[in-house]
Input
Amino acid sequence: MSVPGSFAVLRVLWLLSVFGTVLPLDGGMLFPRESFSREVKELNGLWDFRADGSPNRNEGFEKAWYKRRLAETGPVIEMPVPASYNDITQDPTLRDFIGWVWYEREVFVPARWISDEGTRVILRVGSAHYYSIVWVNGEKVTEHEGGHLPFEAEISSLIRRDPTKPCRITIAVNNTLTLETLPPGTIQYMNDRTRYPDGFFVQNIYFDFFNYAGIHRPVLLYTTPKVYVDDIIVETNFMDNTGLVRYKVSVQGAATATLKVTLMDKDGHCVASSNTPSGVLKVVDVKLWWPYLMHENPGYLYSMEVHLIAVSETSTYEDVYTLPVGIRTVNVTKTQFLVNNKPFYFHGVNKHEDSDIRGKGLDWALIVKDFNLIKWLGANSFRTSHYPYAEEILQMCDRHGIVVIDECPGVGIKDIRSFGNASLSHHLVVMDELVRRDKNHPSVVMWSVANEPASEMPPAEFYFKTLIKHTKALDHTRPVTYITDSNYARDKGAPFVDVVCVNSYFSWYHDPGHLEVIPIQLNAQFENWYGKYKKPIIQSEYGADALPGLHMDPPMMFTEEYQNALLQSYHDVFDQKRKQYVIGELIWNFADFMTAQAIHRVVGNKKGIFTRQRQPKAAAFILRKRYWRLANETGRLPPWTKYPCSL
Ligand code: BDP
Output
């Protein structure tokens, strides 16, 4: 990411510069795709499941449940994967369970995968919350700390040991959060026996969404040849009409291999090619990747096919991996966010991965519905509040031109002990994993390393300086931010961010019921932050709870009228400031979502403009009108795009 001065000079420098994306982790994490040389077998569906309800939650390890079929060591129930387990049964103890749960599934691996020694078989978990250990046929193959991001293990030799046996996959998942996890939490034991039952403990969390747990994203087996494309990194730019795709391919399994890299347009025509593991492809008459509503052809993707051939004394290995590539640039000035050198204004939403019954489990029907609603709304962007969303969702964003602020799970860093070395080390690894996974998505335009940390605490300065520097070293092509709700004068991390992202809840958490304070306080907020830091600002959250169907005029809190009036007061100020240095507005929240039980939550957070079932509240129509108007007003919307006539 660079601040544009003379773009032509910068582009020449870009061509000469070294690769900006550095990945410190061993191995890539390419999304598993089928190809001529790769097969994928999904393991979604029903798994055997048992929660370890023993007092120390450790019976599963003491009795080595992974060694035999789970059904042989105790009762099991059927559990869908992917899904959170919390809302699947009628059992409140499972809904609120803290500790280890065990999943198991037997699978028949295709005979060729076993007999062909030249094939690698990999077990991949899209995400599981929070700590996972995986065994195959009783042998541990991997463990992973953190939800929201994928992990995998090669299991080829294990499944070849006894080809007649099915492959038994056991995954133990623990949702306990500590001061050093992301997000952080604490376990509190209540030892007063006059008030609490024996062994009673609670999980304290410092974030406002239900701590859903389980296997949240697809589990699958996939193959690659023994010599394979392990990772691809692309960085893009353009000069006049020529697109520039700098790429680097990492190969594993052989010291040398022949590569053919072909970039194809949407019709499958080759537009550039090369046979070196790294280089710059030039695309004549480039079709840039544009955000939704900024261009008549948003989300244009080329396909980069990497074809590898490696010849050993005994065999020839061939691997093909095809990566979607969008060619675009992102730059930040003191007052603007530029996509392809044109000012981009974020008119979007904050979301959650959250829905009835499945909790945070990936659900295609829900994903497609949400995209339809986003486009109906005229939203051009969202933030993955407060953790990385499924790769499948980012792929939709790439295709539809929905711009993403990609947030890591650094939410609720409120306790000073969560600023220590162990927390920071883990946070750096999570950023490594996030950038490794999402670096090639054109839709991802900015990294957010945290949401509302206690950034006024003294250790926050070192913490955020290190974290942001690290993230920029991982990827210098994108700006980095974190989301603050702290006081502009005391915020310790703001000097290090590229874009200031501020959350505020005037006339809700502050001065509840007093809508008249919004113009004054919001104006002061913007002037203060801009005055001190001279960086563009996104209103990264604002909103009000509204119970659908609750009405009162003049408006009162929790009614649809109050939500409308509050949003409109914010919008008036945005309209003044967006002509200056405010570069975006993201409503809190796209839809109602589940939270922990609390006296200020009536079965969840109701700040959605859609209900949890994705039906519009009155505010959805206010926002829709505004977002389409904003898209039209910027003048970049070509005449083909009709302002929806119902507005
Ligand atoms: C913000 C948090 C968000 C909450 C929201 C709220 O970032 O996670 O859900 O407040 O209270 O401060 O509705």
User: Anything to note?
Assistant: Residues 208, 386, 451-452, 485, 503, 541, 588, 605, 607 surround beta-D-glucopyranuronic acid (CB under 6 Å). Residues 42 and 220 are 4 Å apart (CA to CA).
